[in-house]
Amino acid sequence: MLTQTHLDTAVKRGIINTAQQADLISLALESEDDPSNEGTGETPVAGADEDLRLVGGGNDLFVTVGILMLFSGVGFVLQTWLGNNQMIRAALMAVLLWLVAEFVTRQFRMKLSSTVLGLGFLGYTSAIIGLYIWDVLDLAKLADNPQLAFGLRPTIGSYGSAFFGGIAVISVLYFWRFRVPIMSAAIAISLTGLAFLWTFLYFYDGVTDGRVQLPTIEQIPLILERALMMPLICGIIVFCTAVYFDLRDRERSTVWSDCAFWLHVISAPLLVHPLFILATGQDVVLGKIEPGMTASIMLGLLISVFVYVALAIDRRSLLIPTLAYFGSLGVYYMIETTANSTGLPPLALILLVIGLLVIMFGAGWQRIRALIVRPTLPTSLINKLPPIRV
């Protein structure tokens, strides 16, 4: 029976092109919807759902458990042999993880196992860089005298850039070798950390040079609100990169689609938090929303915009963090009055509201996309977005 894997292999070997693959998938879906095919027991090569491809099956889970057990044992052995020599232990673990990935990832393309190996390799290589910087700067002395941190400014920029830049380079190399999608998230996080570092140093230098005056207590909320521009800009860049990957793989059949999934997961918090605070007028010092109808209206508009964008690009990975954030923070204040009048706990109402939304979107995602997205966007743009499978 023809499967999605067969089609992917056919594209890689040049037997068919991407457009022909999409036509075959559409034909399979049309056959599935045809009533005359009921009872045949045939399974389409691609479903109408968002295929995350995070787990490759029972054997993948089995191998993942074996990997965790193997490296747990190796960790105890290295600790026994090498003692507190953390640098060498981390280096040996990283080398062993790479060698196992050459077998598990390169030869068998096991998805969950490859993700675990990739995260493990990235963790140990990051530890190597961090331990090196810790020793060179002798950061242990800061525990006894925190004021010494002010003297690190001449070197913190270069070493901080080496840390975040090193993680980004390692992630790129690992992705180039093994094509593990979660490395895209690691690249995004490391570059975002680099942007935050230099933004902080820029304002720090402005204060020490006398170009920027220290804010008064009254000015602190305004300064904190302006500081939200940095995560918002980073979130927009990560989101646009994810959308670019989505547009170049409408049928979600390549590794770039999986990379886009992880980038949407990273971009959602970076976008939601600053927009939530800026739009609702939340007091970033006390952590409360200003009372009134304006905050509620702006919160509702924000939720609607994120839902619409998630439907348009067919990415629940963008919507789930959004609903979780709004449900835990924004909706609490909106329904607090209702909870106080009914005697129900606010958490119960939050769970009810968010649970109903998740079930509704989960059960009828593509139908909701067809009802909302198709009539509101031009055909030329719809043809570039992931197809609406109804």
UniProtKB/TrEMBL annotation:
Keyword annotations from UniProtKB, A to Z: Membrane, Transmembrane, Transmembrane helix
Keyword Membrane listed: yes
This protein's record includes keyword Membrane: yes
Bilayer-crossing regions: 61-81, 87-104, 116-136, 156-176, 183-204, 228-247, 259-280, 292-311, 318-335, 347-365
Domain of life, source organism: Bacteria
Protein name in the entry: DUF2157 domain-containing protein
